[in-house]
Design brief:
Layout (H helix, E strand, L loop, with lengths): L3 E11 H11 L16 H5 E6 L2 E6 H8 L12 H7 L3 H11 L4 H8 L7 E9 L9 E11 L4 H11 L9 E8 L5 E5 L7
Antiparallel strand pairs: 1-5, 1-6, 2-3, 4-5, 6-7
Amino acid sequence: MPNHCFNQVTIQSTQKDIEKIMEHLRGSESMFDFNSLVPMPETMKDIQAVHFGEKQYFYSLSKWRKNLNGTKDIYLNFPDKEWITKNAVDDFTLRRLTMDYGTAYWYDWSCSNWGTKWNAYDVEYSVGPIPNATAIEDGRQITYKLTTAWAEPKPVIQALMRYLSQPGFDHYLEMRWRFKDEQENYDGEISNKDDEPL
């Protein structure tokens, strides 16, 4: 069970921009899906790792599920050492994945590319008018509240800032991101109007 990091992303722009942004960030399971900004390679989603003694083995989750053939609950049953050693991902494939993606394991990929091990969870959002007077005609504001494991998702926020800086969005568009770690009680904020990079 991880410590949680609480994040709040607020974006102000025109109604047209807000609708476009919401559609871009929406995933199949969440209204703020990291894959919409930094997509995890499909191959990475299937690779699992387990340690037996000092050795780490990698295996295909889909191959393990196929092996169960519906006879056991896939979430309550894990492969044993015999199955793992017999069905482990070969060294050539592991090297190829490492060359292509920097790692062969979803966990390491997530930490490197999202800054946290899991996608956003406990996502809430609200849309409404911008609370104060603004230069944005027909302005709207969307606020996402999302939780991440262990740390704030800096690479994802950087990708969001790059996405929002593309031509086609309103000149006055503004994004603010706040995060708070429950363990260290650290609180930070960044805006796309700030001069300092992440």
